[in-house]
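chain below, 152 aa
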Amino acid sequence: MREATEAPSRLPSLPLAGLFARGLLGLLFGMLGWHKVFAMGPVEHARRFFVEGYAETWIPLWALWAVGAAIPFVELLGGGLVLVGLRFRAALALLALDLLVVTYGHMLAEPFFDVTTHVAPRGALVLLLLLLPARAHRWSLDSALGRGSGGG
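prediction:
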């Protein structure tokens, strides 16, 4: 019997872990983006969550409208790409940027914003997926197309 301190020679569950983490993160962002694009609408999202709350800050009004209307598409597209594993490292970078923007906005309005409900779980999954080796993403479109794990 192998001792608990010994490292396994191979990790057969690594691709499963990658698939699960990718699926979970893709659904979290993709479904949120879907709602913002098709149920709420990107303009309403920008008005309600960016312009109304931040018009009196240092951020220019045009930037609030532009970023507020773009975020739903970033989350929908990024979530979908991560879910299927297509250009997935670029999609992870996009979603990481999304998390930084959202976190900054929330903390600008409320310095003690609770990151544990929205940001931390998504951020942890982004970090996990970025740190997993390429072989963990064997079950992805990037792998099926011979692109490794998204082109670096």
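The helical segments are 14-40, 42-54, 61-84, 88-109, 119-131, 141-144. The CA atoms of residues 27 and 33 lie 9 Å apart.
thats it, cya
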